[in-house]
């Protein structure tokens, strides 16, 4: 205890230095400071024998401790004294000294620490907003560019037909129909991105109902087969040997499957092989497995793919798999990712409806 600190021993340093990060004081039942160190006096601008400021959080906590005869530990309070703001961690212990009520108080000044974390949080928010803006711009502007181009081509085709008699009305009508369909598809893509963004940003409800697995697959698989033909990728679907019911929202389950299948089509495109979908019906759960023949997911990436805004694609905002996780959790299920250099395997697990 006799070690010197800038010419003072430790006790004197604690009592006399206003630059340390904690204040100590003893307060009587009338909320007057009996004794206190220099930091205490610096924060509250008082001396021994003077009252704790009426509007201070310290006075309220100390009075509560005396009234209820209990200690208060680790409470974070914010004090504003003479236009100066402090964030303090407060400890208040009620003790009787010579038959007099006393509160022994310790306050740790965490103002600098709070400012550091506020600055760090602000920087992270700015970074997140920047990532969101960049990702959203690509996801919205690219489809809009296609829409704009399609409309320009429609205009050109109509003008060419008016200026020349070499094109038949039927050919022009078919060309216009193609471009309008393409434009509508891109507008739908924009709407889907916006709706997905909104779903992640606020709570949404599912229309849960029992659905037979075979009924769901019969309505969903044909659209996948058309998409596979469009991509030129072999698609094999293995239906379960027995049927069962799932408590799901069919629309949102299709959205989830579409997201995984889109990734599988992108990964398999241009590669030898194809995509296989297998459905297994168990006693308590059913699973849908999607296996592609793409390059797979690197081990160091596997832990990151569920994080919002993580993506390896230039035209994606990285919300797809996070969206899938949120939806499946609302259905009482989950998904698992695995794979190697030969491809990626997605396993979606959903609870079965008990058979009466």
From TrEMBL:
EC number(s) for this protein? Answer: 2.7.13.3
The domain of life for this entry's organism is: Bacteria
Q: Which one GO biological process term can you cite for this protein?
A: phosphorelay signal transduction system
Q: Which UniProt keywords apply?
A: ATP-binding, Kinase, Nucleotide-binding, Phosphoprotein, Transferase, Two-component regulatory system
| Catalyzed reaction equations | ATP + protein L-histidine = ADP + protein N-phospho-L-histidine
Show the GO MF annotations. ATP binding; protein histidine kinase activity
- Histidine kinase domain residues are 135-354
Q: Which PANTHER family match?
A: PEROXIDE STRESS-ACTIVATED HISTIDINE KINASE MAK3 (PTHR43065:SF10), SENSOR HISTIDINE KINASE (PTHR43065)
This protein's name: histidine kinase
